Amino acid sequence: MDRTQSDDDPPSRRDSQRQSFRRLLQSSFLRFIRAEAASGIILIITTVVALALANSPLRERFASLWSMEIELRAYRVALALPLRDWINDGLMAVFFLIVGMEIKRELIQGELASLKKAALPVVAAIGGMLVPALIFLSFTYGTPQSRGFGIPTATDIAFTVGVMAILGRRVPLGAKVFVTALAIADDLGAVVVIAIFYSSHAALTGLLPVVGLTLILVGLNWLGVRRLSVYLIGGVLLWLAMHSAGVHATLAGIVLAMCIPLTGRHGDRDFMVAAEHAVNVYEEGLFGDAAVERDQLGERRESALRALAEVIAGMKSPLHRLEQHLHPLVAFGILPLFALANAGVELPALSSGSTLWQQPVTLGVFFGLLVGKPLGIFVFGFLAIKLGLGAMPSRTTYRVLLGSAMLAGIGFTMSIFITGLAFRDPALVTAAKLGVLSGSLGSAVLGVVWLRLFSQQPSDAVRAQQ
């Protein structure tokens, strides 16, 4: 492993470097949190707009917009799908690409990189999927509606972090890290559920192009290819192959993410060599021979700085570069568009809606998110801490942990996405979406009230550390 300091560095210098590194990681995480919070606020606005339009005199035009068929042609390939399907199957593949890159980054470098770090959020995420699924099945067991068991198992990270941002410093940074890692582990579980339970059974011959393209992408990674365009072309072909084979095409985003390299062309040693060379060149001008011509020295400095800049640019991996470019597009474009296309549920009037509110699907999703999510996360997390498998997040109490688990019941994006995979009957889709919206809203309100009552504002000393 590359080393950036010698063993004879004084302890004070090592401590200073460690603190600087921690601050760098913390600031990176805070930037991520702020981006997710802003995305969550945009999602809330677009959801309200979709609900308003779906329950206004414009509802028929609004509904017909998403059923409008659009055909795309490329060479001899033509594909025609309704606008909503282009969003749910096409654009959401880009969302899953972001999800896959976040999962890969966390598994290799982040909060899920080691067993000790991953234990608490992973165990809590397992509980947060099992208990809601069991609650849903208790309402729908023995009926075809039980196919929707995966709907209340998801956590929407953007919505959840957006609500946490509203609470400000009442939610400690440790709790935010825990919920973010839990949501990423939750996304990984959702991907497995979709792949196993919500992809149609494809014939072996139909899967051969999928397997072949996947092996090609893996081979590109193994050969050290870092040109993103090559991977993106392979990802598009993989999406088409999955769509034709009956495997849900959005999973192409996950497969592609796992194949994009997480290491850059240059490493720490290259940076140290280039930086040392640049320092030496500058020292020559300050302390070296005065006879050195200024023009020659200026050229050497520019050359050294260009070499250093090239190394720094090469240290950023293709995965980080792609994630940096796509994250704003997904957060502020694709997800709001998905919300507009899918959150427009026609809310029943109080006089005629009692039957819909009593639907097993609606009740299963509602109680799965509102009760099952916090119960599963908190109980499994509590057991993981007590058994020594994981540690309580910094500056977090059990009360704050429970409040954070309540907020994790906001399952908007992935829950609505799984609804479209689980059911084709419009009545069941409406019933499930009603459960998702009401359960997510209830979880948000319950979590906010709980944390405002039982989470203390940090002291000035703790606030400075955050």
Write down the domain tally: 2
Number of separate helices = 18
What class do helices, strands and sheet pairing give?
A: mainly alpha
Apparent shape? globular
Q: What is the CA-CA span between the terminal residues?
A: 31 Å
What name does CATH use for the topology of the largest domain? Answer: Na+/H+ antiporter like fold
Would you kindly provide a written description of the structure presented here, covering whatever features stand out?
The chain is mostly helical. It folds into two domains: 33-264 and 316-465, Na+/H+ antiporter like domain (Na+/H+ antiporter like fold); 268-312. Helix content is 73%, strand content 3%. The chain has helices at 11-54, 59-67, 83-108, 115-140, 157-167, 173-197, 204-222, 228-245, 251-259, 268-287, 294-315, 318-342, 354-357, 360-386, 398-407, 412-422, 426-454, 460-465, and strands at residues 69-74, 77-82. Strands 1-2 form a two-stranded antiparallel ribbon. The chain starts with 10 loop residues before the first helix and ends with a helix. 40% of the residues are buried. The model is unreliable at 1-9 and 459-466 (pLDDT under 50).
